[in-house]
Each structure stands twice: as C-alpha cells, then as structure tokens.
Amino acid sequence: MREHNWTRREFLQGVTGATAFAATEQTKRRGARRMLPKPTPQQLAWQEAELSMFLHFGVNTFTDREWGDGTEDPRIFNPEKLSARQWVQTAKEAGFKFVILTAKHHDGFCLWQSKYTEHSVKNSPWKDGKGDVVREFTEACHEAKLKVGLYLSPWDRHERTYGDSPAYNQHYVNQLTELLTEYGEVSEVWFDGANGEGPNGKRQEYDWQAFYGTIRKHQPKALIAISGPDIRWVGNEDGFAHETEWSVQNPDATIHAGQTEKIWWPAECDVSIRPGWFWHEREDAQVKSLAHLMDIYYRSVGRNSVLLLNVPPNRQGLLADPDVARLKEFRKTVLDSFEHDYAQGKPAFAANSLRGHGAGNVTDGRPNTFWSAIEEEIQPTLEIDLRVPTKFNTLLTQEYVAEGQCVEQYRLEALTESGWQTLVNGTTIGRKKLDRFEAATATKVRLTILKSLAPPQIQRLGLFQTPKVG
Ligand code: FUL
Asked: Of all atoms in ligand 1, which is nearest to the CA of residue 193?
C-alpha cells in the first residue's frame, strides 16, 4: 500500500452507508466470487481491444442499396482502386484492433472465390475475375497485426437452396469452411440474425449448432458474435450500451442450447459512421460529427462494451476521404482526452484491504493489479489524495474482470472547497466505465462500492479533464 496521510478515523468520517460487518451478509458473500461466470482469454482480449471496425462492402456498394435481392449482376462489381491495405492502415492508425469484413451480405454475392456458387467476384470484371477481396483483406490484417473478423450472412437471397433447410445448412457450412481454412487466423465470426423466406416460400431453419461446431473445429479461438455464444448484440444500432451493462447474462435457448447457468456474454455496440451500412455517394456529406462519435465512444467503450464502428469502402474500393479525416480526429480526441490521468501515481488508502491488494493498486498504472477489501467490508471505500486542488470532469473505473464482474452500485465523492460532494452515482462498472460530470476541483476523491455480488476487485480509478467536443 502507498503512503497515506490520514488516520482510519479520519478516513471513515463522512463515509455514508454501513461499513459495519454483518455476519449473514458475510456468509452469503463467501465463495460468491468463485461462482461468478468469467471470460475466456479470447473474450477478455476482445474486450480489452475496445475498438473494432466493420467494413460493409459488396454489390450494394455499386447499386446504391442497403439490401440487395440476389439478382444483381456480378459484372457491376469493379472496385478499380481497391486497397485492403488502405482500409487496414486507416483502422490501425485510428486505434482499432479488430476489423470485420462482409464476406457475403444478404444478397449472396461472395467477395471470395467460393467453389459453391457462381455469384461472386469470379464473375466480375475486377482483376479479370481472378481477384479475392477476402484474401487481400486477411493478408493486410495479418501483415498489420490486426485481428480478422468475417461476416457471412446466413440469409442468402441468391442461393437456390435457401429455404430447403438441410441443403442450405450444408451449403453454408461449406462456405464457412472455406473462409475458416483458407485465410489464416480468423478471430471473430459475425452472424447476423436476419432470416427471410427462400425462393420456395419456405422459411430456412438455421442449424446454428452445426455452424458453431464448424467454427470451433477449424478456428477454436475465434469468437462467435451476435447470433453466437461469445459476443452479444447490445440491442440497437446506435452504438449505445445501457447505463447498466452486465457481461454476465442468462443463456439464450437457441444459441446456448442446453446451458442453464448464467454465462459470460459481453456486449458489442455496432453502428455506422454514416446513415447506411454500405457506401452511398450522397452520404459522403453525412459522416457522423466528431461530437457524435465521441458520445458513442463514451456510451459504448465507456459502458463496458466494445464499439464496432462501420466504415464502408466506396466504389473505388477505398475508404472515403471524409470518413478517413473523421477517424483521424476521433483518434486524436481519444488520445488527448485520456492522456493525463490525475489519479495515477497518487497515494490511495483503504481500510481492511486484502493482503497484496491494497488501494495503491488502482493508481499504479499497472493492468494486472487490483484493490480488494476483506469480505467483512460490505461497502468498501477507497480514498485518493490528489495532493493539490485538481480539476477533472471524467471518472474512469475498471473492475478486474478476468475474475468476473460484480459491482452493482458505486459512488464517487470529491473533497472540494465546499466539502465532500457526490459527483457520480453509478451502477455497473465492468471492464471499463466512463462517467462524465460538470468539472470539479478537489484535493481528494473517495470511491465507495455500495453494492456488489461478491467482494469487488477494482483494477483502476482514473480522473481526467476531457475536452468538450462540438
Ligand atoms: C443488419 C443487416 O441487415 C444490415 O444490413 C447490417 O449488415 C447490420 C450490421 O446488420 O441486421
């Protein structure tokens, strides 16, 4: 524990709520952490990556539509200047760690040389029908050390077997197998839930378990997202997670067949930088403002979620200038906002910390240490001495989620010229929580965990003066 300059009595003064030990509570909490669902190493790494980029690209880019109907002529696909390196470099420079390409959207047009259909790049004029967008994309990602994600729409409005459930499921498994075996490591497979009728008027019954089995067999480390067991859709396409956002969820009967216990199923927020998912010329002037993107960032990454931001390549096969420019601004603003943590390196104190897990761990700048109180502390409190009056308007908190998520309610108070003031009353924390408030100038701050499923483990507390954008 770091040096501190107050006594326990001083410390407890003004602490609201009961800190007294209650025997029954303690018994309930004993062993509670052991029972919490925990992330797999892949889920944890994905959550820590924070930013994923979506690339919606295909025949819709050339027809100016959002959903193709499968009758598109492959000859319209001709992105003459296509550069997957430009996509990937742009993503990398903007701080994105995963990139997900629509290898096939609902129109069924395949961006790779699939053996199982003629409706693909092989019948396009692009590179005389010899090109493979998935190949160029995956190579660019591997080269830049970004993680590859692939979107393969289960709904296929071109494929004749669609609606003949066993035949189409086999077709889908075949295509999935091509993508998972011919392009090196794939880290995420994104399953959209859209489901329409086939040409025979029958509804396709997807064999999800066969799809998941195919992925586990060929790419056991790949995360299966949305209509999948590893990553959950947040429930809207605005890029906003909920104020209270749990990575712990009840299983879904179709997706997690046979599972009854609660599971680790963290949220992903998908949103497009433009009104549509695909590129449309008229939307070059409708790229989301920097203020809007920053709001999305705070309400996704800052609410225990991953942001999946769609940036669609244009007809030339390049990310358009307005999007690239906006991403640069976004990156700069994120870096500037979180450059200076006023809590880092400052002395922190908490009563009754677990040995080796003192309060100083939240300000030590290290990712693998955390503060935790002994079980008897029902509402653990930690105080940071900022030493000098310090102005800040943003709180960052993180739980040590490798061992589960459990904070249900917390409060941040600050010692200002007019005494202790409450700045934040929050619910969940999870992997990362960002709370914004009117700037305060304080010499001390105090974090109290008011309610928690198990003794909380707080990895970090950060304080920032972030700029107002827009
Ligand atoms: C939706 C699709 O229908 C949209 O076209 C887009 O791909 C989006 C990410 O998912 O369900």
From this structure: 11
Q: Is it the case that residue 27 has pLDDT exceeding 60?
A: no
* Ligand 1 centroid from CA 261, angstroms: 30
In b/e form, how buried is each residue of 369-390, taking b as 16+ CB within 10 angstroms?
A: bbbbbebbbbbbbbbbbbeeeb
Compute how many other C-beta atoms are within 10 angstroms of the C-beta atom of residue 148.
Answer: 26
CB-based contact 249:267 (threshold 8 Å): no
pLDDT in tens, 216-234: 999 999 999 999 999 999 9
Does residue 252 surpass a pLDDT of 50?
yes
Burial class (CB in 10 A: 0-12, 13-18, 19+), 23: exposed
Q: Which of 100, 104, 192, 234 to mutate to test the pocket of ligand 1 (most atoms within 8 A of CB)?
A: 192
- Return phi, psi of residue 264, to 5°: -90, 115
Task: Give the span between the Cα atoms of 449 and 427, in whole angstroms.
Answer: 9
Whether 98 and 188 have beta carbons less than 8 Å apart is answered as: yes
Instruction: Dump the DSSP string for 87-135.
Output: HHHHHHHTT--EEEEEEE-TT--BSS--TT-SSBGGGSSGGGGT--HHH
146: Cβ contacts below 8 Å, ≥ 6 apart: 88, 91, 92, 96, 97, 98, 99
Q: Which two tokens stand for residue 448?
A: 């109290």
Per the DSSP assignment, residues forming a β-bridge with 118 are none
Ligand 1 atom at shortest distance from the alpha carbon of 151:
7
| pLDDT tier, 24 (very low <50, low <70, confident <90, very high otherwise) | low
Query: pLDDT at position 31, please?
Result: 79
CA distance 393 to 343: 13
Q: What is the pLDDT of residues 400-411, one digit of tens each?
A: 999 999 999 999
The phi and psi torsions of 22 (rounded to 5 degrees) equal -120, 120
